[in-house]
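Handout, page 2. Input:
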Amino acid sequence: MTEAAGPRAVSWSELRFASPLVKVMTVTCDLRRSGPSLTYYVDRTWVGLPLSGLFTVHARDDEHLVHQALGVVFPQGLEYRMGHPTDDGDTAVTLGFDTGIVEEALSTTLERVRVTRLDVRLRYALGLLLAAARRGDDALLVDVLALDLLRSITAGLAPERQCSTSPAARAKVDRVRALLAERPEDHWTLQSVARLVDYSPFHLARQFRAHTGVSVHRYLTDLRVAAALGRIEAGDPSVATIAADLGFSHHSHLTATLRGRLGLTPRAIRDRLGQPRRDH
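Output:
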């Protein structure tokens, strides 16, 4: 991607892995609570996956709220801007593939930015990719993990928005999504969230599912799971502490949820990340 115009964000990047097939980088932005600023031009289709924080992508007439456990495809030839709705900054992983690979995976040509449905399996696969790159594993393995992740992203792209979608309703749902993503550890209730967007609990539940495909409870739980995966990847030794910090009722609740979403326990996740077994 190349810069076009606008105020410069406070950001920096780090190369994590590079091969003839894919380049993996982390990009951190420290621009706090701001609207769309710098304009970028996409000279080659690339993919982004947030590690922490949240941001908005503005391209053509679309606005997308992006946070952990989502993937974003930026198609070649597009100009876009980014906004930052919180004070915490954000970090994302970018995957830049060799010419034509993303288009082959998509089996179509995209004309707009596309975002996946919320899927904690993407966040887990991203952790495996970064762990393999950090360990200096064989380039063939890292390439395969990157392609597997790309395949999951292209398969999980949400349907394009329909003209009948209410912009006002989407804005309110996105505000709820932002609140949950910014503070997944809070003890939210449907009543408290609905009150913040001037909806009844019934109307919020209906609109939220219509726009995201899942319930508010499922969405919040998956955000907590994504945050837990980040803590496990960082080497946090205590599943009990992670569970308590993120709003799970008990460490067994977190373990059961991970098993339900990924088919894996925290210990199995640590094993696959190449970490020592130290859960307690």
